[in-house]
Amino acid sequence: MWRHWSISRQAKLLLIRFVRLRGQPDEIARGFALGIFIGMTPTLGVQMLLALLLALLLCQNKLAAALGVWISNPLTAPFLYLAQYETGRFLLDMPRVQFPRCLTLECLQQLGADLLLPLCFGSLIHAILAAAISYALVLRLLPVLKTWRVPRWPRPFRKHRSHDR
């Protein structure tokens, strides 16, 4: 059923779930910032597990951490990773990676090192900044958002098949 909902309706439901999280704004903001931090790292595929595990170990809001991880999704990840790579490459004063002409193990290992070092360094910079900004924003906006009344989404009119017979 949810697959038939529009993107705007899904975004609205996600916002409602976020606003309805239980806990103090500081607890939710810390959990969300942790999720954002993990979501900004190049750990695609295990980010949700990492965020939940770290939230459990650090006694943070697990649901907020799980929601924060979604900053990195199949639509945003290529842009995030490209920006992180370029930031790391610039700060480390490294040339852009050139893909090898040969596919030997040594060439591929060098490619991995030349690609991963700036990506990991850049992702650390982006993750710290994004986590700090998201913490401050959620801490300030959550009390305001909790006072809002979100109107029900209008349902489209559907004919019942039992009346058509």
Could you characterize what this model shows?
There is one protein chain. The protein has 165 residues and is mostly helical. The protein has one domain (14-148). 65% of the residues lie in helices and 0% in strands. The protein contains 7 helices and no strands. α3 (47-57) packs antiparallel against α4 (62-68) and α5 packs across α6. The longest helix has 43 residues, at 105-147. The radius of gyration is 21 Å and the shape is elongated. The model has no long low-confidence stretch (mean pLDDT 80).
SS-based class: mainly alpha
User: How much β-strand is present in the residues?
Assistant: under 5%
What separation lies between the terminal Cα atoms? 25 Å
Total helix count?
A: 7
How confident overall, as mean pLDDT?
80
Radius of gyration: 21 Å
Total number of β-strand segments? 0
Number of domains: 1
SSE order, one letter for each helix or strand: HHHHHHH
Biggest beta sheet attributes = none
Helix content: 55-70%
Which regions have little confidence, pLDDT < 50, spanning 5+ residues? none
- Shape descriptor reads elongated
Keywords: Membrane, Transmembrane, Transmembrane helix
Organism: Desulfuromonas thiophila
Protein name: DUF2062 domain-containing protein
Transmembrane segments: 32-56, 63-83, 115-142
